[in-house]
Each structure stands twice: as structure tokens, then as C-alpha cells.
Amino acid sequence: MPASPARRTALTVLRRVEEQGAFADRALHGDAKELDARDRALAKRLVFGTIQRRGTLDWIIARHVTRALEPQVRAALLLGLYQLLYTDVPAHAAVAESVELAKPSPGAKLVNAVLRKVQREGVHLPSDDTPEGAAIVHSHPEWLTKMWWDWLGPDEARALLAADNEPAELALRINPLAGVEVDIKGRREDDALVIEGPIDVLAHPLYAAGAITPQSRASQRVARVVDPQPGERILDLCAAPGGKTTHLAALMGDQGTIVAVEKHAQRAKALEAQATRMHATSVTVHVGDAKEVTADQLGGSFDRVLIDPPCSGLGTLRTHPDLRWRATPEAIEVLRREQEAIVDTARTLLKPGGRLVYSTCTLSPREEVVAGGTVQRTLPHRDGTDGFYIAVSDGDV
Asked: Catalytic positions, please?
């Protein structure tokens, strides 16, 4: 019997991520679009879970396999182990379908042998009372585990590592500018609506109407910290895809001016489309490098400036499972230099007495470029949402 469409799709996406460096969420969006809603949900669960647990699964494979595996066989084995160890999928289905995914390679026999041995004997992971052990148990790079261990302490680091492997909550932002009643059931918190149960947000008519948009509760805090007022000039640097930009517009009743700077032309177009969908007529998009823009180019200085610079994204590992395997300490240092340069430019664009807000969706002390003043930090295990760092610099900066 051939493997199910959801598992076939999961195998395809996993191979694209592993072999071509594709981003899991983007690859899944393209490859799973022909599946029905139930199969899409299963494919996403398998892909995200397998990538999140890849470090642990690799550790297990290394103790059962002594030779290099063909990419298809390796991917099938990873999917099978994930289902056996971390889901409620019946063991016989996890084994049989993974073997089918490995065919016609002779390696299918190895997949069958390893999965059945794990099914019989289980696995014995190391203790997570050291950073090295915790990295294996909770499937994070050892350098990242050590960084959080030293920064947050062992107990908090373990809690964060464990939380990163849990499903992310689905939060929507309700947009009053659309003038449409939102009748979706969920838990309301300010503009946020936390949904329980499956929903295809992008296909929902309220999404097309601009009444809702996906945005984590942590991300929604940022515009509220900026606190834009009607009639003010607001600058949003590195603005795409526009979630915070359009939230700023909603909070000021779309009265005033928001200049959204985006370096990449295609992302700038997407930002304009987002502003149109969200009825944010106060938004003007400027294509330019946030490190180099000037007040003359942007029509003057600003009452408030939001800096949302490129970052390592280590606060979003639930929704972007492959980021943990892409980030490196060296890349973070490069990002820090970029962040510092953008902050330096932002200070030249702020009116005396204005408000500067620096925000990143990461949990990395080296990327907390703006310190002092008012600081907020969200943690997935404590707050149930993405990890964010938000710092405010008020007054004459």
C-alpha cells in the first residue's frame, strides 16, 4: 500500500529543507496546497516536528546506523522515528508508511529494522542536567543551549528549550479599520484573538476583507509600545511584511503619516499590498536601506521611530523550526553590526523628545542593542507566545 499523501508531502518538504536549504514553512505552503485541510495539518505536524527534533533523532540514528544513508532513506527514517517517539500515530502505521517512503531503495529494509528495534526497546537519552545533555534531549544546537544556560540559568533554559518544541498558538490581530465584525471564536486580548482548533486563516473571507491577520501576541505588543497618536509622523524601519506597520495605522485611527522603509523591492510591494488589504491609507512605503535613509529623503524627522531590524529569529522557533539549525554565533555578530548601524541612523531621524522603540523577535543578549529605559522581554515558556525583546528610548536621544 502506498504511503499517504500527507506523508509523501512531508518527505518531499523535509528533503527540500535538508538538501536544498529551503525554509520549511515556505516549502510546505507550496507543496501542500493540493492537500485537503486534514492532510495539510498532518503534513505540517510531521515536517515541523521532525525538523524541531532533528538533533535528537540524529543522535538516535547514529547509535543504530554505521553507514551513510541515501537522502530519501534518511528522511524516511527521521519521519518514522519522530512519529514513533513524539506522536500518537499508531506504531504499525509509523513503521509501515516510513518503509514505503524509503522504497524502492534497498535502504527500506534498514528503515524497517531500526524502527522496529526502537519500537521494541525504546531509546535512552542522556540527562538534561548539563548543557550538552539538554542540547540532545531538547534538540537544540549545543552553542545555543549553552548561551541560554549561561544567560537565563539552567531551570529557565530547560523550560525554554522544551517550549520551543511545542506547537505555537495561533493568534490573529483584529483590525478595526476594516469596519467588519469578527465572529471567530477564541480568547480575546486587546486586538489579539487566540484561536483554538483548526482554521485556514489565509482562505478565510475575513482575511480577504482585511479584518484579521496572523500576528503573534508578542509582535502585537510592539506597536502598542510605540503608542502612535493621531496626526503624528511615524517611521517604521525594516517594515516588511507589514504586521506592525498596519497595527500602527490602526492604533492611530489611520490619521497621520507612517513611512515604512523596506530595502528589498519585492518585499516592499508585498508591504504595499498588505497596507491596502488592511485599509491602512496612512502608510507610505519607501524602498531604501534603513542604514542609509535621510530625513530629506523621507520628508522630515519623526515623532516616533520603530526599529525592527533583521535578527536571528531565535524567539520564533515554534513557527520557524529550521531557524535553530541555521543560526550561528558568527551570524549573530554580523546581525549585531547591522542592528547598530540602523539604530545610529534612526537616532538622526527622531525629533527631539520623540520616542524610539527597538524590537527583535529573538532571544539573544548580543542582539539587545538598545538598552536602558523601558524594556520588555517575552519568553515562550512563560508567556505562551514568541520570544521578543522590546526596548524604549524616550526623550532627547
From this structure: 361
